């Protein structure tokens, strides 16, 4: 089952700030949250959750993913925007949520920091590069 679609970081932010029911779910690992940073949910009244899609360092799928989404208030009919590092894990998360009847579920293109650029570093595209709110944990 397909998910609702892909959004640029700016489109995702517009949805989150214009729809008080929309929730942001960052599906990166705990290590990524701690060392790279997370979206700042303050401007969207805290409507964000950190739910690993896979665990670090094992790389194993999170067996409680759907339960943790429910704990975060993700339900059928409530828009959910998934974010990862570069926009790959978040597609899988959006597909899983959709298959479970949650959402509409969206993927943020380029994720939090995008793919590796020509200089060998990330951060040229995505949430942070777009200047959207974020913070260190």
Automatic annotation (TrEMBL):
Coiled coil: none annotated. Pfam families: Rhodanese. Residues 18-121 form the Rhodanese domain. This is Rhodanese-like domain-containing protein. SUPFAM superfamilies: Rhodanese/Cell cycle control phosphatase.
């Amino acid at each position: 089952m397909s998910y609702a679609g892909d959004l640029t970081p700016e489109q995702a932010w517009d949805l989150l700030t214009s729809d008080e029911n929309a929730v942001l779910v960052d599906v990166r690992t705990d290590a990524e949250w701690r060392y790279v940073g997370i979206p700042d949910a303050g401007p969207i009244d805290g409507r964000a959750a950190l739910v690993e899609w896979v665990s670090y360092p094992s790389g194993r799928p999170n067996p409680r993913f759907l339960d943790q989404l429910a704990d975060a208030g993700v339900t059928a009919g409530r828009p959910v925007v998934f974010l990862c590092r570069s926009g790959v894990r978040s597609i899988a998360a959006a597909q899983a949520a959709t298959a479970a009847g949650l959402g509409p579920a969206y993927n943020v293109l380029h994720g939090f920091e995008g793919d590796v650029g020509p200089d060998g570093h990330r951060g040229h595209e995505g949430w942070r590069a777009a200047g959207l709110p974020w913070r260190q944990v």
